[in-house]
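Hi F.,

I've been meaning to write this up properly since the lab meeting, where we talked about keeping a consistent format for the predictions we share between groups. The idea is simple: the sequence comes first, exactly as it goes in, then the structure tokens exactly as they come out, then a line or two of notes. No screenshots and no reformatting. I'm using this chain as the first example so we have something concrete to point to.
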Amino acid sequence: MKKRVMVMGVGAQGSTIAKKLDREPGVAEIICADYDMRAATDLEDTLSKARAVQVDAGDGQVLKRLAGEVDLIVNGLPPEFNMTVMDAALENGCHYQDMASGPVEGTAFVDTVKLQLGRNDEFRKAGITGLMNTGSAPGFANVVTREILDKLDECSSIEILVYDGIWSKKFIPFWWSPETAFGDMASRPVIFENGEFRLVEPFNDPTMENFRDLGIRKMVDHEHEEPVTMGLLSGHEAMKGVSTVRFRYGGPAVDLAEYFYKMGLLSTEPVDIKGTEVIPMDLVSKLTPPAPKYPGEIRAVIEEGMISEEGAFLVRVTGRKDGREVKHECYVDAPGLTEAYEKAGITHESYLTGQSAFIFSKMIVNDVLGERGVFPPEMLGPGERTFFLKEAAELGITVEEVVTTKW
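Output, unedited:
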């Protein structure tokens, strides 16, 4: 039977998912739900199966009514709405998928993830799936991590490293929401170290990472979901006893944010400027150019001139196999900005994250994902991971693995 899907939040990632689902034979209808009705109707006009709906995500009753019309909710909203959307999915017995767990203002990052995982029994009893964190990182990175873990007898550490370097003549510091980017970078990252969660300072532990085919680049600890979900699940047999998990990030956007942070420009505390109170973070976010969203905006950046494009996406897992120390390094290769635009009319960020999220949606729609309950992608089974990686390769997203064994 064909499925109906509601994509909540049709920004860069949500619209990418909706466009791909529109071509799926197993999808009967896509409800494009957004507070911005123009964004929803613009998308509806380009798709054959779409229906635009204006939704205030804070209105739980409206969400529950709409959830009664679909088989799957793809939640592309900010994480503070996760629990409300999960409520709607539970009440109506439809599957749920999101792309991020945090941060949520007023709640510690680890606690936000615990709240979601804590709904596992409810979802399982309802016979529905709640798949968390289904973008590129988290998401693709988690699938690759589990692929490596299954090859080990024991795991000591997991590192997920993402470097994004794009320089264009047009000043575009971030390829997603500047407000979200600055907020994430100013937050204290959670690392899972020696079996315990630890909060560290922003831009913690700068190191110079030598990436294959790229060279040496500066990387720092960054707030992200992977250390939290993998740390909370470290006691599960699938995690092979891992004791340390870190997410590290680098690139010109990180460098810019670090300078601003050290100058106090990412503070949310008001400062007096000639008798007027100003919140530095609000000012910086307001003055930062938004990420290009529509094809014409992306094309304008490319046509004005690209100076350089470079990037790296590395999953490194160390452990033991047959009594020997082993290091697995998996590089994820995906289209850069120019290639992503040529392929799909979107940015590299939207391509990797949105296409990854779409594959997870496709798995749910086509009943490839049979597990019920609430869980992140590192808990997927071998057949499900094989399906995911095969689909990704067909979209031009591949993985290359290098294994080093210490005798």
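Notes:
The mean pLDDT is 95.
Residues 359 and 388 are 6 Å apart (CA to CA).

If this format works for you, I'll send the rest the same way.

G.
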